[in-house]
Amino acid sequence: MRPYLAVIVDSFRAAMASRVLWILLILITIFLIALAPLSLRQVLTSNLDWRDLREPRQLMERLHAEFEAPGPSPGKHIWRLLDEDSRDSIEKITQAKASDFSIPARLHEVVEELNGLLSRRDFYNDRAWADVELKSDAVALLDRGVDQLTEEELDELFELVLRSGVMEHEPRRTRKVDIHTLIARKRGSDEMSRSPAVASCPVGDKPTGTSRERRPTMEHVGIDLHQKYSEICCLSGEGEVILRRRIPTTEASLRRVFARREPCRIVIESCSQAPWVARLLGSLGQEVVVVNPRRVRLIAESTLKNDAFDAEILARLGRFDLELLGPVHQRSEASQLLRTRLRVRGTLVKSRTAMINMVRGSLRSAGIRMGSSTAAGFVARFTQTTLPKHLLEVLDPVIETIAELSARIAGLDEELVREARSDELLRRLQTVPGVGPLVSLAYVGWMDQPERFRKSRDVGACLGLRPRIRDSGGRQRRGHITREGDKEMRRLLVQAAHASLQCQKDSALKRWTESLAERVGKKKAVVATARKIAVLLHRLWVTGDCFQPFPNVTAAQ
């Protein structure tokens, strides 16, 4: 083994001593350095060409200077549309040294923001773009007539207009052009019908009705929400990606992106961040669609899964039939607050139950059996039990916490009962057997708007109380209930069904449950009754009627 190593070491030393090797290394290094600007240009290129930013400092200084200058101009209009982050990046680029390594990154952020502005209709302003002057290349295209140009030539002409308005400083042969002539063909805008006659078009070219005008299409946006940052992907009406951006998940960031944007369709997945984000974007005039994650298996089961790709999938799914995505209703702020109060009470009850079970288990392990009692009377029962002093000292903090939780739960119950008795709708819902103040309040908070269900029978399916159905090839199979929807509301309805069986008052609902229990068993009968109660509560809410124990007899009378 050692002779082989010696040969390798000697070969390496001979190669290092060779001048040819060093010359090759130097040539390769020079070649890579020469290619570095090209690679950087490719990375930073988006909708804007990197040729436009060969002198980035002068461009940024011009944008900043035109904002302070009097009178309208394209640069001043663009500066007003930029967000605060992009303005800050431009100011830092103008103030930074030429050797600052942060300039390319900041320049990339500004380019992305400018590309996002190009897709906005308010980017083009009559006063700002009134004095745009074109170079000879654009003039040659205008001499042929706007209506005679192909799509590729229109793209070239449109880029020349933007470059002349912002990027260039000394145009050669110039000619004024009405920007609406280009917008009507490029963006499919209908502003041609509202704009004045195009007096500054090339000689012999008049706007005619034969131009291929397209109606503006709605943009589709997908947002992949997360706790700290969210990914945004915006598609044009033709399905092309026109904006990708990562922003903090804050109200200020969302307002900065969507407040000045034209109405578009925004698709987000249902999550803990979805309610307040949906309300915020809805208040800004956007169409917000919150989809059910179970319907978006394309994201969960994808082999290429990242935030940017997930946002693009949501945006593309929003371009098709939304019923396939199972839109989730976003409740109002009042309903959300009511559900939060009920969740607070439920959390306190669960904590008290866990502590009571811990105390009982500790006593059993010490050979002490404590008599049964309700949760509210557990502390009184504990004080009546004779315990060793060392065990009492250990459990005393838990007992004090249980007493405090019981007091808080009792206070919340009084508030909820008082609210349930003061509302006319809640009083009508409580006429159903087994439905009390807690169930009625939870149902109202969950339903929020009864109009979102076209039929009362749909309520049971929304709460996961319908059976799974497999009907294919002439064979039908019914399985267990789907258990979809709100788990807590489903649990309360099942409790109400149990309570209706124990109700002393006779009713058609109770008779139906008892007859069904004899055929399929009590458990299935209780679940079926819970579904019937959910449907019945919605019907009473919509019609404004009260519960009738025997509706057929009442109708006959």
Describe the structure.
α3 crosses α4, α18 packs antiparallel against α20 and α20 packs across α22. This protein has 23 helices and 7 strands. The protein has a 5-stranded mixed sheet. The chain starts with a helix and ends with a helix. β1 and β2 form a beta hairpin. The chain has 5 domains: 43 residues, no CATH class; 137 residues, no CATH class; 106 residues, ATPase, nucleotide binding domain (Nucleotidyltransferase, domain 5, 2-Layer Sandwich), CATH 3.30.420.40; 90 residues; 102 residues, no CATH class. With 557 residues, the chain is α/β, with parallel strands linked by helices. The relative contact order is 0.05.
Summarize the structure.
The chain has 23 helices and 7 strands. It is α/β, with parallel strands linked by helices.
List keywords for this structure.
557 residues; alpha/beta; Nucleotidyltransferase, domain 5; 5 domains; extended
Give average pLDDT, whole number.
78
Low-confidence stretches: 38-46, 168-216
Class by SSE composition: alpha/beta
What is the number of helices?
Answer: 23
Shape: extended
What spatial order of strands do you see in the largest sheet? 3-2-1-4-5
Largest sheet: 5 strands, mixed
Number-wise, the strands total 7
The helix content is 55-70%
Number of domains: 5
State the end-to-end CA separation. 109 Å
Strand portion, in percent?
5-15%
Order of helices and strands: HHHHHHHHHEEEHEHEHHHHHHHHEEHHHH
Q: Compute the CA-based radius of gyration.
A: 35 Å
